[in-house]
Specification:
mainly alpha, Serine Threonine Protein Phosphatase 5, Tetratricopeptide repeat, 73% helix, cell projection, repeat, TPR-like_helical_dom_sf, TPR repeat, TT30
Length: 477
């Protein structure tokens, strides 16, 4: 959809036919879709045709919404005719933007009952469930959108790329837009990625109707960068850098680019991006993200200062975790399940903020080979982290590296391996290797041999399955 050329075309038509005010409206709509919001608002303000008043108010409210002027957007939406079905839908969008996902969900459901099934509304409902962390409900609506898309539009080739078929691009057509397939599958990616189901997350992207890279929307490109960063970091960084130069870009792009630079220890690049985009810092980074990135970037020049920054953050998070633990216990005594669930969710979210800080602190001493100090850091956090797999894994590695604590290390590796014992190839090779060494060093040779035999059997089965797949014919369209 070439909105820039549409802007030029309608601008000329509006000048050539000043007595046809619809061209002014179309010009303003094209400017809005091209994200030229001040220009769109300027054109809208010149339209005084009474018959177009309703369309003008709707466009004005959409512009204010996109500018994040939610108060004025709401005032304008409330001026819609009472029987206009868009009223409920747009108020739902405003509630969503305000973070009131319960109210937004209620309004989207109301709109759906008035307007009937629409993929766009089903996606909005799924998005509310996602924000409420009701992932199974979100996936239920996503599955419905995808199933309807496959049934009603087989020509869009949903899922064919995942099956290994080589298809031509279906383009960014109005039909594709109306199905909400791209939005739904991107949301499925978000759910699976958050749940750390990375294979399912990748399949959500390959299930999309095929498009060439230059045709991809910003969210799909962002998600491709995230899922592919470990296998091709340079391509992932190139995609995120490109997105940052676009208007608009997914809000998570800025933080993800910075965090990934730091993950790969490109601290200078992270510092440069921060310095060159100070206008984005307050808009797209939380205080936590800024403080964490600031500490990471300081690692290169002053590890002591970085450790102190991490320590201050860790203490804040630990105090918050203690308060939330107390709150959860008090609420559980009152038998208020909904409030208790929300308190547990708050605890889990705070723990997910605390862990990266803790790991960054530990890494400073890990890099120095001071594993006893690393163990001491982890022991401080046992109160909150003892059930977390990431914490258990890193404690196991720390004990293993000290070479005198193989039995204790095995005690941390074993639950991770046991959890995936049916499919051991899903477990990192380093974990399996280290556990075998632990067994051998503690004279548990039978356990080591059993584990190695199980891995060998699975590798043989996987090889056989792969050979069978290769023998299947592949269709080309």
């Amino acid at each position: 959809m070439d909105f820039i050329n549409a802007v030029d075309a309608y601008s000329q038509l509006a000048q050539l036919f000043p007595n046809f005010p619809e061209y002014k409206l179309y010009h303003a709509q094209a400017l809005y879709n091209a994200f030229m919001l001040p220009e769109a608002l300027q054109i809208v303000s010149t339209i005084d045709e009474q018959s177009l008043l309703g369309d003008v108010i709707k466009l004005e409210s959409a512009i204010k919404y996109r500018e994040e002027d939610l108060n004025n957007a709401r005032i304008l939406v409330e001026q819609y005719p009472q029987d206009d079905p868009d009223t409920e839908m747009n108020l739902a969008c405003l509630d969503y933007k305000d973070g009131d996902y319960d109210k937004a969900l209620q309004r989207f459901n109301n709109a759906s009952s008035i307007m009937g099934y629409q993929p766009e509304l089903a996606y909005a409902i799924a998005l509310c469930h996602y924000r409420k962390k009701e992932y199974s409900q979100a996936l239920k609506f996503i599955t419905d959108i995808v199933d309807r898309g496959i049934k009603d539009h087989p020509e869009l080739g949903v899922g064919m790329v995942t099956e290994g078929m080589d298809l031509r691009s279906v383009g960014n057509t109005m039909k594709l837009h109306e199905t909400s397939l791209v939005e739904a599958l991107n949301l499925k990616f978000a759910v699976e990625y958050k749940l750390k189901n990375f294979t399912a997350a990748n399949e959500a992207l390959t299930d999309m109707p095929p498009r060439s890279e230059e045709e991809l929307d910003a969210v799909t490109l962002h998600n491709q960068a995230l899922i592919g960063i470990d296998t091709d970091p340079s391509d992932g960084f190139a995609k995120l850098q490109y997105l940052l130069s676009q208007n608009p870009f997914p809000p998570e792009t800025f933080a993800n680019l910075l965090l990934l630079y730091c993950k790969y220890e490109y601290y200078d690049l992270a510092a440069d991006v921060l310095a060159e985009n100070t206008h984005l810092t307050f808009k797209y980074l939380t205080q936590y993200q800024y403080d964490y990135l600031d500490a990471l970037i300081n690692l290169q020049t002053s590890p002591e200062e970085a450790y102190a920054k991490f320590d201050a953050m860790a203490n804040d998070q630990m105090n918050e975790l203690r308060n939330l633990t107390k709150k959860v216990q008090e609420i559980r005594q009152s038998s208020d399940e909904t409030t208790a669930r929300k308190a547990v969710e708050a605890f889990d979210e705070t723990l997910e903020l605390y862990l990266p800080v803790l790991m960054s602190q530990a890494k400073i001493y890990w890099d120095k080979g001071d594993y006893a100090r690393v163990e001491k850091i982890f022991r401080k956090s046992v109160e909150f982290c003892s059930e977390h797999d990431t914490w258990k894994l890193n404690v196991a590695h720390t004990l293993f590296m000290q070479e005198q604590k193989f039995k204790e290390a095995a005690g941390f590796y074993e639950p991770i391996v046991s959890k995936n014992f049916v499919t051991l190839l899903d477990v990192s090779a380093i974990i399996l290797a280290n556990l075998c060494v632990c067994y051998i060093m503690t004279n548990q040779n039978e356990e080591a041999e059993e584990l190695m035999r199980k891995v060998e059997r699975e590798e043989d089965e996987a090889r056989e399955l792969d050979e069978n797949k290769k023998s299947l014919p592949c269709l080309h369209h």
